[in-house]
Amino acid sequence: MRPRDEILANIKRNFILEVLRSNKRIDGRGFNDYRKIEVKTGVIKKAEGSALVRIGNTEVLAGVKLSIGTPYPDTPNEGALIVNTELVPLASAMFEPGPPDENSIELARVVDRALREGEVLDLEKLCIVEGEKVWLVYVDIYSLNYDGNLFDACCLAALAALLDARFPKLEDDRVIYEEKTSVRLPIKNYPLEVTYAKIDEYIVLDPCYEEEEVMDARITFGIKQDGSICAIQKGGRGSFKREEILKLYDNAVEKAKYLRSFLNI
């Protein structure tokens, strides 16, 4: 980091800390508040399912595409879920065109892990012919505007798109994508992610971009509908105390319920 950039970063961090010491955040929220959340489904007509999610000024788009393929050798009677994310350059000056960088790879893996380990789909019900033919469910997520906390936004968008999805017509082993049936995906669980940032001694929910810039550490919980943890990811060079993690987990269970309320489930 250049000396001038380091000076500016320290000024920004000190300002944010000063606001936090007054028990506030730079955007006026409490430490345990989400920004305004909006969820719209059915926004991509040619996809089997889709969702547009906004958390504050962070905006992501998720689409679901179904195709027929062969099952994995170790799970011959199960379909598969594949999650991809793309940090589109138009979303932020930080994102560059080209192969996925480490941030894009981490985002895809963390969202994929929450959905997969959270058993969002009953994969056995995606089997058409055991050992030969299964449905493959692709979830592609694109960042449209980045203002912090892509983890929660992407996971929420992915689940909303999966809930919105309907199977295309299958006729003589041919998928007719132009004709959707009324059959929904076999949703089994409703896992969602809840993210916190630690800035010095302060811990805040749903960090915005400015808070992410100065945070010491980040922790994301993947929470199933029954309140159990299906995934957890820690980022940043800082750390969380054991008692902090336990307290945040209890809070994350409640916040995941809040997020689910936007999905009408």
Provide a concise account of the structure shown:
This protein is an alpha+beta fold. It has helices spanning 3-21, 102-117, 150-164, 209-214, 242-260; strands spanning 37-41, 49-55, 58-69, 80-86, 127-129, 133-145, 166-171, 174-184, 192-199, 202-205, 217-223, 229-235.
Task: Characterize the structure shown.
With 265 residues, the protein is an alpha+beta fold. The mean pLDDT is 94. It is built from five helices and twelve strands. The chain starts with a helix and ends in a 5-residue tail after the last helix. The strands form three sheets. Strands 1, 2, 3, 4, 5 and 6 form a six-stranded mixed β-sheet that branches. Strands 10-9-11-12 form a four-stranded antiparallel β-sheet. Strands 7-8 form a two-stranded antiparallel sheet.
